[in-house]
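Case study B.
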Amino acid sequence: MPELQLKQLYDGFRDPDTINELARQIKHLASQLTEPVYMMEVCGGHTHTIMKYGLPQLLPDNIHFIHGPGCPVCIMPKERIDQAAALASIDDVILVTLGDMIRVPGSQGSLAQFRAKGCDIRPVYQPLDALKIAQENPAKTVVFFAIGFETSTPMTAVLLEQAEKLGLDNLLFHINHVLVPPAIDAVMADPDTKVNAFIGPSHVSVITGSKIYQPTVDKYATPVVISGFEPVDVMQSILAIVKQKVAGRSELENQYQRAVSEQGNLVAQQKVDHFFEVRDSFRWRGLGPIPQSSLKLRAQYAHRDAEIRFAERLPVKEIDDHKACQCGDILRGKANPKDCKVFGRGCTPQTPLGSCMVSSEGACNAYYRYAGVE
Amino acid sequence: MCLSIPSQVVELHDDGNVTVDTMGVKRTVSCHLLDEALEIGDYVLIHIGFVMNKIDKAAALESLELYKEIVEKLEAEENA
Amino acid sequence: MAKPTQIQLSHGGGGREMAELIGKLFFDAFDNPILRKEEDAAALNLNGATAFTTDSFTVAPLFFQGGNIGKLAIAGTVNDLAMMGAEPQYLSCGFIIEEGFELEQLKTIVNSMAAELQKSGAKIVCGDTKVVPKGCADGLFINTTGVGRIVKPGISVSAIQPGDAVILSRDIGRHGAAILTAREGLELDSELTSDCATLWPVVERLIAANLDIHAMRDATRGGIAAVLNEWSKAANVGIDIEEKNIPVCDEVRGVCELYGFEPWDLANEGTFVIALPQQAAEAAVEIMLRFCGCQDATIIGTVSDAHAGKVVLQSPWGSKRYLELPQGELLPRIC
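Model:
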C-alpha cells in the first residue's frame, strides 16, 4: 500500500477534477429523480464548506440544500448570552469561552461589548486553557461558558475531570451543550417540512458513531449520509443521496469512513455520560423549546454549576427574536432567506436579528455574503 | 465550530500528550479522549486542543484511490 | 553604581540620562548630518510633489520570526511611500517606552531599524522619546512618519481601469500567521517567518522600467482581501481573482486550517498588489521575479466593469464567491 501523506488528506479531498466529475455524475443521475431532493446538512461546518466552495452552483435545479440548525453559536438563545454577560458582570468572576461566542449579541449586548465595559472575559481556543486561568487566579471565580454539539462536549468533560483531579474549586461551568438528534426531530416534526434527506455531521459522528442516526432513517424514511468536511466528501455524499433516492432506498450510509465508526469514540462517550445528564428541555434560537435536546451537569457536580451557584444573579427572561424574523421556517426548510422581510435590511451579519445571520455557519449569513455572485 | 483538522503525530510526551504537525505548524495536544496509544506518523483529527481519534489510513487511501479512478475514467472517456 | 540595564523614567525626563540614551543609542544608529544638528525641527529641502505618511506600531510580541517592531516601523512607513511611487527620503521616529524595558532589547530593535533604513536609503532626521510608568504601555510603541519625492506621479486607486491586470508580489499571509504563532498562549511552533521587508528596491526598478503602473498598495492589515475590496469600491470596478493563482505557503495554510482563517484576510508587511494594463503585466512580473521576496510574483486576476464594487474569487472548479472584507477580531495587534 502506498504511504499516505498529510497533504493528501487536504488536497486529495479538495481536488478540482474530482469535484467536477462528481458534479457531472450528480447531474446525470438527478435527471432520473421523480421529486426534488431537499437535503439538510445539519452541521454548521458543512454549511460553511458548501458556501465557501460554492457547491450549490455545481448542482442541478432539482437538488436543494436546506441549511440546518447545526451551529452552536447561532442556536444559542439570547437569554443564555444574557446569563453569560451577567456572570461576567459579577465582581471577581472571569468568564472564559471559545472565541466564536463573544461577538454574538444578547439582549444587552455581546460579550465583546461587556469586555469593553471592563468585564473580565477571555476568549480561548481550547477549553483546557481555562485550567491555567483558574490556577493563576485563585482569588477569582472562573466560569467556563461551555458551548457546542456532541463534538465539543467531551472536551468540557475532560476540563471537569481535570478540575476535580486538581481540586480547583474556583473553576465553575455554565453548560450549553446541545444534541443533534433532537434537533433533527424538531425539524421533521413539522408536517410542512420539505426536508427529505440528511447529510450527517462529520465530527459529531466521530464522537457519537454513526449509530445515532439509525432512528432518523427508520422514523422518517429519509436517507442519512454521514459526510466528511471537505468539498469532495460533500459532493460524494450528495451523489450517494441521489443514488438512494433514484433507487427508492432510505438508508444510513457513512461516506466519512476514514474518521467515523459505527460506535464512535467510547472514551469520550463515557466521560460525557459521567459528568452530564439530559435536560428536560432547552430553548433553541429559531426553533423554540426542544425536549431533551441539551445537557446539564449531573447533581453530584452541582458544586461546579454556575447556574446553581449564581442562580439569583442570572436573568431567566426568555428573549425572542424580532417578529418579522423567519429563522424558524428557514431552519425547517420552509422558507428561503430571501423570503424574509428583514433579510439584508434590518438583519445583516453586523446586526443579526435572527439565529441564521449570527455566524458564518448560519444560512442567512451565508446567503448574505455569497448569493448573487453567479 | 466543529472545525477539526487532520494532523500528523511527530512527538510523544511522557504525560501522554502528543505534538502534532499541521502543514509545518506544530503544537501539543491532549490525548485524554483516546484509549489507544499513538505512534509517530499516525494521522489524527484535532478539535479544540484534543485528539478526537485516529484517521484510518487505509480508508483514506481507499477514498483517494476511488477519486483517482473516477477522474482517470473521465479523462479516458474524454480522450476516446 | 552599575549602569541600569532597564529603561528608567529618567530616560524620558529631558535631563542627562535622556541625553545619554539619545546620544549613545539613537544618534549612533541613525547617524546623519540633519539628525546631528539637534535642532527643534529638521530643516529639509523638498522639491516638487511629495508623499507624506505616518504609522504607529504596537505589535505584540515585539520580536517575531522574520523581524521585530523596529524593522516593521521602518519598512511599514517606507513601503507606504513607495506604494505612491515616491522615493523614501526622510523619516521621523517617536518612541513610547514602558518603564523597565530592557535596554539590550531596545538596542536590538534600534539596530534593526538602522539596518532596514539602509535598504531604501531613507534617513531618520528627527525623533522623540517618551518613557511611561510601568503598566502604561506594552513594552514599546513606535511611530514613524515619512516623506518622499514622488518619482512617478499619478499612481492612484482612481487610475484603475477595467481590463487592468492585478499582480501579487509573493505568497500571502505570512506576517499575520507568524505573529499568531509567536503569541503567548497558543504554543505553536513553526519555521514560518514574517514577510516584513522594504519594498522600495523592487518598486524603484518597476518605475525605472517605465511601466504604466495604475495603482500599487501593500497588503497590510486586512490582507489582500482588504486591498482588493478598497480598490473595487474606490474605483467602482469589479475585480476577478483566480484562487488557484494566489500563492500560499504550507505553514500559512496550516495556521488557516487550525483557526479557520482565510489566507487573504491575514496581514502582510512586505507584500504588494499592482494594477496595470494587461500588456505591461508580463514585463512587470519579470522584473519582480528577480527580487528576493518576489520570487512568487504572479498575475492573480483582472479588473472588470461587471459587478462594480465587488471582488469575485473563482475556484478551480468554476464556482464563484465574493471575496469579503475581513470582519471582527481576527488577530489583535499585528502591526
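Chain C has two domains: 9-150, 157-322. The remaining cases will be described in the next quarterly update.
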